[in-house]
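Researcher: Please predict.
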Amino acid sequence: MKVGLISHTLGCEEDSLQDIKMFHVYDPEILGNITMVGTGEICEGETVTFMNTTNADGGIRWEWRVEGTADGYVFQDGGRTSTEQLPVITFTKYGDYRVFAKAVGPCSEKEFPFFPVTVSGVPEVTIADVLAVCEPFDFKGKEDARIIIDPRNDAVRTARWLVTENPDVISGGYEYLGMSADTSLYPDIRFHNGDYTVEVKYWNRCQTPGKAVFRIQADKFIPITSIRDDSICTRSREVRLLTAEPANGIWSLKNADIPHAGEILYNEGDNYYFNPQFGAYEELDVPLVYKLYNFSCVDSAEMKMHVWP
């Protein structure tokens, strides 16, 4: 409030000289409060604003500051602090911040409780390629260590998966397993032979998703369809061509420790032969293993060559 004091000069006349002095008496307390608009949970590039209900008789000076990542925020005037009564603060980097406000009056000052601000960024998603695996390949979303997600100060909430088959490669297709779907956060997907490009998008509270694109190459599994036991006599001077379907696999001894093992099998190109004259002097069975490879895929089967002395 304002108080005026009037003083008179010496004399008795009513029109004698008067001196009037005005004094401003301030309220010692700063009343009211400051509130932040919204919850304080925002995304990178967004702003926070405030409502002010403070009231004090006389001028108030404002002091605003922020604690958090040093280059992650800016006041509307481009500074790191502000003296505005109602500043606007833009946050540019994900993280947790505290906004402090102080009102300084002629007779007192008031520091308000800090305002917490949680800033989320676009999720960062990394998924490694899956190359040279044999069909069927089961991509286990939750168990697969290839999926690395940094939710950027939030949690991922929704997802969208898109699988595209390479039209230039013969494909056996894919299917989601169990309760999985293209909107699952961590789906289980079975891939058959083919070349696939997989794109996944993850959203947190922000509108812009984090995205990863990776590749899955699954080789075709070719099974062995025909292999039979055989017999041979040690007195035979002819070696035996080993056969199985499909051809062009690799033959080996199941037990490489048998006597004269190095003399039993040999190959010429893709053809493998059994040599009966390896020094067997008694009747015995020689177990053989046939393996058929197709890049990362391999099928295996066994047969017995019965040797007559």
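Model: Confidence is low (pLDDT under 50) at residues 1-5.
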